[in-house]
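Quick question: what would this complex look like in 3D?
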Amino acid sequence: MFETALQDLWYGFGVALEPHNVMWCFLGVFVGNMVGVLPGMGPLATISILLPLTFGIKPVGAILMLAGVFYGSQYGGAICSILLNLPCHPPHAVTCLDGFPLTKQGRGGAALGITVISSFVGASWGITEMIFLAPILVVVALKFGPAEICSLMLLGLLAGSTLARGSPLKGVAMTVCGLLIGIVGSDIETGTPRFTFGIPNLFDGVEIVALALGLFGIAEFMKSVNQLSEVDTKYTNVKFKDLRPTRDEFRRAIPAMFRGTIIGSLCALIPGTGPTIASFISYATEKKISKTPDKFGTGMIEGVACPEASTHSSVQGDFIPTMSLGIPGDAVMALILGALMIQGIVPGPQLISEHPDIFWGLIASFWIGNIILVILNVPMIGLWVKLLTIPYKYLYPSAMFFVAIGVYSTNNDMFQVGEVVLIGLAGYVLLLLDFHPAPILLGFVLGPRFEENFRRAMLISRGDIFVFIKHPISAVFIGLCVVLIVMQIYVRLKSPKAMPTEMALPTDAHHGHKAAEAAE
Amino acid sequence: MLRTLVKKRDFYAGGIMTLLGAAVTLDSLTYTLGSLTHMGPGMFPLMLGCTLTFVGVLILGTAVATPLGDDERILPEKPEWFAWACILAGPVLFIILGEFFGLIPATFACVFVPALGDRTATYKASAILAAGVTFFGVALFSYVLKIPFPLLKWGF
């Protein structure tokens, strides 16, 4: 077991170290980092905008590049949140709480240095977890019939929509909308066009790129235009030598880092609890066990190290169900899965055996990418902080071009550019009504497979709807779904207004949460 | 009761979801439903439509059950109608100009018009930005990525 995993990993390094793959990985990390630093650009927008650029690349290179874009943009976002107090990605809201006070005290460089180390430690642990857990999960998952897959997907969808953020009911509504958008197009079995309004361009379904760019591009730009206040750049003059933390800071950060890593990897194991929740929980824990809890929020290095480590370890952990079961935990993973599907690769438990180069190459490239990230960020920090000064008014119009051309280039079809405008408008209306559109993508990506497996399960059981409870494994998943719903109702009834993430945090964190809300 | 209800954000949120769910449910009935064993193309949408209607009604229910919040405005404090129109006009112009005049004018318009949406924008700065993006964008997409899109053309 242990030996085969190491052997596979060795093979993975062989794939990932091929010169062109290293190049794609580097390019992904570099561009992701660059776009992620820009104020107002979160990882979702970054990945959606860069997704069309990967279509011309072979599957392995494309996926390595996208993964690189993801963690590059996440790290870039940390720079933005620590130095400007502007979290573009919800997990960073917590990092701001102590990161920005540190910046004000002139220790922003050290906070960034600690962030680099913490994310590397967290990511390394997450990758190790993935190496050993994913193959085990696959062995189990290969025994699953359609009924089990179906209930597992239901659990994933439910967890992704209710645990993420905002009102769980609205999350479920968004997931169902996503499933419905996934239906648009020809029915897989009979070929009947459904919800196409007679438009031939819709027979192949809605393009994932158009959906992602509409929801996370155009809708976000409409939300942020003229709303982002002028960026305060008086603290952003950070140089290479500033990154070094003092011995005392380092001593305090190390244990926090490891605690964060453990919390993050535990959160990754629970479906639906992504990096956001991991970072909130780890911050709260760190505060609880600290000898000076009242000092949190005034610039404690632990308050930066712990959430950053947990975010990165849970992000890597999120790749486990995505790659081994084909069930993404959040919108970012859904996008990466969607990219695989565009490349013609069927996600699911058979992925590791059928495309070992993708799976093991990806794992190996995580390490390579994280090392590239450290190399890029430590000596070149001066360059990245310069990017912080680019005002949003130049950013979003340029991004609009990438949205338009990106959507066009997926099929060389102008119709989809029209699609993106409509989706963007609808997405903004949803944002105004307090819906978080991220679960739409989750539903959209899983929808067709969910329907297919559901139909198959019903066919095998001869129309017995109780098949989902009769199979023991499936019954466990359904049971978990019920537990999830009951838990949500219980929490709601007990404290109607509180959100799960807010409960994990005392009131002084409210500011950061609001900021995250704004970023989302 | 009703008067406070129509002020609530969740009233509209739930309402839209209920209507959407109902529309999907009705529309799915026009497809073959089939039986549970042999599901037709209409069955899954029907189930989703019913679910969405149900969730929509639940959201409406929470709107009725919870008191009026402090901030129930749907539109932001200062609605940015002009900026929103500019942003949406960008890709629309991209379609029209791209279809008839080619990539260069389409790109320029797609950057220039959204840039005008910012309150502090000037025509000159927006034009410079648009020209810059056009230059690099055309270089990247046309020459490096080789997207089949004529740079300049006239009519159909």
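Answer marked as accepted. Residues 101 and 128 of chain B are 20 Å apart (CA to CA).
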